[in-house]
Amino acid sequence: MAHQDVADAELAALLARAAGAELLRVRRESGLEGKELGNAGDAAAQEVLAALLAEHRPHDAVLSEEAKDSAVRLSADRVWIIDPLDGTREFSEGRADWAVHVALWEKGELTLGVVAIPGEDLVLSSADTPEVPARDESAPLRLAVSRSRPPAVTEPVRAALDAELMPMGSAGVKIAAVARGQVDAYVHAGGQYEWDSAAPVAFARAAGLHTSRIDGSALVYNGSDPYLPDLVVCRPDLAPRILAAISDYTDGDL
Q: Could you tell me which CDD domains the record lists for this protein (predicted)?
């Protein structure tokens, strides 16, 4: 079978699973701890993803957190946006709430997103998105929040929803948690890059969730500057309340 005959969705899942397996191996066998373990994981996962993309999609451009950026991608029709290890801290602490992100951008739009959560032996793909579970209307709303760096905007949104905060690691894990029905919303305004959200946002969109910037504008990928500092991912019926709460928030410390 020619390499190009491998479907993009199949390849993305293979990439995410292979990087995840390598990360688990590094954590199990390297003998490293803390920051050294995180750095080793970043490098090892990047090597796996880069090699597989070079083999299977040698003519596509790549934007990765762990590789030097190239302006070539700005004129490319196809760009893989990858985060070899999202949630480095959680990975290095032996936790399960870290992820591998593999997204494909084509001619202006995200067309595919795969999020692997190796600690749960889970691979989520926008090509095969399950229905978001129905919410228990008698239960409090749940808002995913960073374990270590909750942004200032969290509190006004929590108050507007009268929600419980659910601390989690990786952005991919938090966004996937909305699609999996584990939480109802994730709002972030503390600084991220395209690779932090591209794959999970593609998955969330395929699941029918609301995805936007905190001002309600569209999340746009493959920009000249990959900085994409804020987002809202939530059940669609909650979006008006969340965006209104953010709009009313005048602290300015977003």
A: CysQ
Which residues in the chain show pLDDT less than 70? 1-5, 250-254
Query: Rounded to whole angstroms, what are the CA distances from 197 to 55, 57, 69, 140, 179?
Result: 25, 22, 17, 26, 14
Domain boundaries, the chain: 3-128, 142-248
Superfamily of domain covering 3-128: Fructose-1,6-Bisphosphatase, subunit A, domain 1 (3.30.540.10)
Q: Whole-structure pTM over 0.85, yes or no?
A: yes
Helix (H) or strand (E) holding 210: strand 210-212
- What are 62's strand-pairing partners? 80
Is 110 in contact with 202 (CB distance < 8 Å)? Answer: yes
The CATH number of domain 142-248, selected from 3.40.190.80, 3.10.20.90, 3.40.640.10, 3.40.50.2300: 3.40.190.80
- Name the token pair of 85: 């290890």
How is 104-150 classified by DSSP, letter by letter?
EEETTEEEEEEEEEGGGTEEEEGGGPPPPPPP-TTSPPEEEEESS--
